[in-house]
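Researcher: Sequence of Phospholipid-transporting ATPase follows. Predict its structure.
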Amino acid sequence: MRWSKLYTFNCFRGHHGDAGADGPSSDGAGAVGGPGFSRVVHCNNPGLQKPLKYPTNYITTTKYNIITFFPKAIFEQFRRVANLYFLLTAILSLTPVCPFSPVSMIAPLAFVVGLSMLKEGLEDWRRFIQDMKVNNRKIAVHKGDGEFMYRHWEELCVGDVVKVEKDQFFPADLLLLSSSYEDGICYVETMNLDGETNLKVKRSLEATLPLEEDESFKDFQAVIRCEDPNPSLYTFTGNFEYERQVFALDPGQILLRDSKLRNTSFIYGVVIFTGHDSKVMQNSTESPSKRSRIEKKMDLIIYILFTVLMLISLISSIGFAVRIKLDLPHWWYLQPQKSNKLDDPSRPALSGIFHLITALILYGYLIPISLYVSIELVKVLQAHFINQDIHMFDEETGNTAQARTSNLNEELGQVHTVLSDKTGTLTCNQMDFLKCSIAGVSYGVGSSEVEIAAAKHMASGYDDHDMPLEDIWEENNEDEIELVEGVTFSDDRLMHGNWTKEPNSSTILLFFRILALCHTAIPETNEATGSIAYEAESPDEGAFLVAAREFGFEFFKRTQSSVFVREKHTSPNGTTEREFKILNLLEFNSKRKRMTVILKDEDGQILLFCKGADSIIFDRLAKNGRVYEVDTTRHLNDYGEAGLRTLALSYRVLEEAEYSSWNAEFLRAKTSIGPDRELQLERVSDLIERELILVGATAVEDKLQKGVPQCIDRLAQAGLKIWVLTGDKMETAINIGYACSLLRQGMKQICLSIPTGDQVAQDAKKSSLTTEQAAKESLLSQIANGSQMVKLEKDPDAAFALVIDGKALAFALEDNMKHMFLNLAIECASVICCRVSPKQKALVTRLVKEGIGQTTLAIGDGANDVGMIQEADIGVGISGVEGMQAVMASDFSISQFRFLERLLVVHGHWCYKRIAQMICYFFYKNIAFGLTIFYFEAFAGFSGQSVYDDWFMLLFNVVLTSLPVISLGVFEQDVSSEICLQFPALYQQGPKNLFFDWYRILGWMGNGLYSSLAIFFLNLCIFYDQAIRAGGQTADMAAVGTTMFTCIIWAVNMQIALTMSHFTWIQHLFVWGSITTWYVFILAYGMTLRSGDNYQILLEVLGPAPIYWAATLLVTAACNIPYLIHISYQRSCNPLDHHVIQEIKYLKKDVEDQTMWKRERSKARQKTKIGFTARVDAKIKQIKGKLHKKGPSLTIHTVS
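Model: Prediction complete. Tokens:
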């Protein structure tokens, strides 16, 4: 018997998302050759294949190439309005209307744009290197005469025959021809495609089985006619023409690019789709362009500044036109030798228009040219610090956190809702066999994490509920005794052969045999140690096999037709090896929810072993098979409440005649061709999976990842809402909700689901509606009832949880219902969506993002989470067990869910405040500088004359004020990382946008306006008619301009020093170094002849004049004293949370007064109804309520 005969029942393959929506129909091969089915592959015949000109296997994910980089990168830079404005001014600087030299306008623009393009180029270069690593992988390709040679992946062509060896990735989409197994099956791992860790079985056509050696391909020729490239992962239609016969092809023979060959020594395959035609590349979408809310608001501020710029330029041009017309004819000493259009008194309107252009260039310093490049540089450095954070390093995998894009750093500090996958994200995807129920008796004395956590927090008392969570959860691990990996079971009644003394030992024997035989796993023996490891299709199967081995039933060998088990305690002779012949194997899938194996034992008895969901198994029990149903149901409920995943086990003895009759019908269904084949297989399999006898049930624990409960608790205290989106059934999702404290006892659950088909049909018949309309009406009623229940709840501490399944969610996401659903979800403390498809995950994320209007973060680890990750404002991928698809699509990647706490509460908080303060400061300093030019312009009769030297203006943004603001954006910390974690409520400063609201922005702009007035008018008053040189000379324009510029440099650098809360030597170097650089520059510049009016200005004019130094001191103080008064008043009378903490730390009260410190810590968390702390608080309230009820009765008794 061949494996290909056994692994045939694979009906109802579920589509992930709408992957199949764009694929061709699989209604047989009749459409081959028609529209959408035009591909022709000449196998092993390059001469015929080349003229068809299909794409090569070269792939690229870069944005640019050598030819397109410059034009495309330039286009990207000048999509920004500010850069477009500066480009226009740079062009105009070459004309007579510009008040500056061309170099002072062109140089800063070239520097800023060049730096941004360099960053773009480096990021794209990294993508190119990654692509080259993939394209240069090697694979064995048939070169002719039965010989194979290694070639790069990128050199593969359609029609090539390749040989893929164990643990290699498939280089393209292949048709499986043969494998190292004689019947042509192979095992494939597809987690890079669909996130599933279980192995898939593929099988070749029987016609190509003889092609099992290199030499057999010497004369191999065939033609494949199939569907065109499409993104459908689970469909394939085509014909294989070989040796004058035509064979139909289906997805079972197709090996997709980026999946991996497992448990198979080698396979031979022929290339069908290459490069960007392959299904995985057809599914890849460009990451959506994401911009942070701060960046969008920053654009709005720049538009406001543009409006201000246009306004003052208009005022200036009108003023110039009026002065030209009315005053210029009387200024005989200013008459030009040759009149021109720029100052023609006879045409003042035209002169005014030309002057408008001059003013737009002159006042352009209101718009900070270096803002974009500075922010990009700061974000890159912030991302570097995220990547280097040792506290987010995972020792097991060696992976660090990775900021895959630096555009969204500040968004991390403004997250309102977290949408999380469950398996592999909250849980480890590692199952531990913990308990079981056999013959109505529960076995297993171990406790799940939920039970341990509940016991710990109950034992911790209620007087001090500020007990560190880490202490409670670390103690949990000490109570676990993991015998071997995959088993945490402990019960002497079953271990060491003691089960033979139990009253129902025969039923226990059947239970252990079902564990050891009902599976599709492959045993792998370690030659060095002799130990056996199992390659199972699911983690549950692996846990069952390891448990069976510990009970004395070791599955150790599988052949083409049999499985072998080593039984320790079933014979008085000791260990016995038994062979069971496999007759049929009906695989597990999400629709069947069960798996069956039919086999023959050594006595010739035909046995059917079936395991599956309890609801499915119980429906198929015989009347005499329900002996243990009541007790088993009770145990299943207990296991479910403990957060465990359960399966029911059953069996049936088959008569030879009954089996033969059924098998004949099954073979007919299996060999049928047509769209009904899968339905026929399901119908036939259902016939034999009846009249079962219940044996018992298993309970395995899907272990939570380390630190998940603490992380969720901290995020809840930080005020974040958490939604869980999972493909698991409702019961399992609820169990995990309890395990990680998203749900708790006493929380009122609102469960939304579509009633069963019969009930919906009855409702539809009563109300004369279609079945679909009846289902919608039922769901609408449930949502309305839930909303009403929430509104009528009078207890302010009552907590609601919303649980919805995939069928109900499909209706809830429709336009006429989604806002009602969202409003109900917002009112609930936690939301769990079960049985959701990848597409539904993305749609829920979009609904939350658009409906709430706040920042959403999606986190997942599988390819089925990619849509959700890309749809959210921030996508976080977990580089865990399920491949790298989620990571590749993400904005940030971490190794475990628990690192999300530090990523948001620490780095998110810091990055938000840094970027917000940095942008506000940028606008402040440019307004303070730019408006002084306008004031002087008005003072000088709107002549277009600048008070500052061109070189001063060139260096202001690029050199003299850029480094301090960059150090603010990179190193500023209002509180340390430890304090961020101890006071999670500080995080709410981001979602509330306290540091970048309009009050704060306008406040900084007002500060800039005040500083510009103080700098200009104080200097004007001081120098107006005051002698500054020993000879009695008064200050000229160069002296006044240089002094004003000195005051600006001092004022803005002192302002940033006052703004900073955290100083390192770098900040000191940049702030004071910038001021020093100004003096070094003016000294060096004054020594050159090019300095013109500024020749030796510091040494000969300003340096010896005390009034210069006094004016600098006075003006700097005048500019910064108002800010100092404001911040002093705020800290004293209306302090923010971080002000209080800073003061406590500065006065060391956290060390000297622990009581006060604990009190402040307990206050510094958002009131939450989920998380471990909420559980403790609810318990305290419950105990206090009981004591309060006892109090009055005790008092009455005493009085009487």
